Amino acid sequence: MNQHFLHHNGSQDENTETIARLNIMGVGVVNARAETAVATIDDEIGRGHRVKLAFLNAHGSNIAARDHDFRSCLNRFMVLNDGIGVDIAARILFGRRFNANLNGTDFVPRYLSTSRHRFRIFLLGGRPGIAERAAAAMKLRDWPHDVVGFHHGYFAPADIPAVLQTVRASGADLLLVALGNPDQEKFVEQHFSAFNCELAICVGALFDFLAGVVPRAPRVMRRAGLEWLFRLILEPARLWRRYLLGNLVFLARLARARFAGSTKGERFPPSTPGLEPGNLASRG
């Protein structure tokens, strides 16, 4: 019911850990602890691979169900699980929970604080002024990285070549993209080769949180998997369709998948998703 796709060779010991992808209704999602995911990304970059990272929650799963191009795009990323919805799906479809909730709002800061690599970071996305504020907030963190540029996400298709040139000129090797689902993943997929970055991460609302314009849910709600409810309370007019109707749609799709058994025989490619070879020297 799952596909083993990668062996992580820990740099601190000789143990080899196998990381599995669970098929969450057509999207392969990595099942790993946070520290293993961090080490896996670092190891692949160290081998000279270029990594595309995304996150799947119930909302993204619903979009992937009706947008075949988005679903195919995600399966060319390394995808981590985000939130209680996909955790419920894992329990119902496979009889097991994910090893950890690796939502982007928590995982990306964790990755930046524990990665053994030092990055030059460019922030792309959000409303005008938000990426700039998020970049300023990142510079205050005790992280061994340099923020080398930022650009808002309100650009027209005709502006894309100029945006790509700005990213390249910054010398960034890590690109954080906050354009919302499915635009951010499709943007990275289409233009990844032009970024000249080692790592691109689709981060959703992370810039809003870093900039302080959207508060995080209380820790007790986050631990209970109820951060979505906190966001709904804050922005009911904008989010009621996503969370109230969307969650019902997700659960209905999950029930159909469970009783149809449609995911049990599906296999994913044995190669590591989200990796591309590049003209990059291996990093230690």
Approximately how much beta-strand content do the residues carry? 15-25%
Q: Note poorly predicted spans.
A: 1-16, 264-271
- Secondary structure: helix percent: 40-55%
Distance between the termini: 35 Å
**Any idea what the shape is?**
globular
The total of helices stands at 12
User: What is the radius of gyration?
Assistant: 18 Å
Q: Average pLDDT value?
A: 86
Count of DSSP strands: 10
Strand pairing plus helix content: what structural class?
alpha/beta
Major sheet characteristics: 7 strands, mixed
Number of domains: 1
What order do the helices and strands follow? EEEHEHHEHHEHEHEHEHHHHE
Description:
- Keywords: Glycosyltransferase, Transferase.
- The structure is a single chain.
- This protein is of the alpha/beta class.
- It has one domain (2-269).
- It has helices at 34-46, 58-66, 68-74, 84-94, 104-114, 130-140, 160-170, 183-195, 206-211, 219-223, 227-234, 236-260; strands spanning 2-9, 16-24, 27-31, 49-56, 78-81, 120-125, 146-151, 174-178, 199-202, 275-277.
- The strands form two sheets. Strands 4, 5, 6, 7, 8, 9 and 10 form a seven-stranded mixed beta sheet that branches. Strands 1-2-3 form a three-stranded antiparallel beta sheet.
- The longest helix has 25 residues, at 236-260.
- Mean pLDDT is 86; it is low at 1-16 and 264-271.
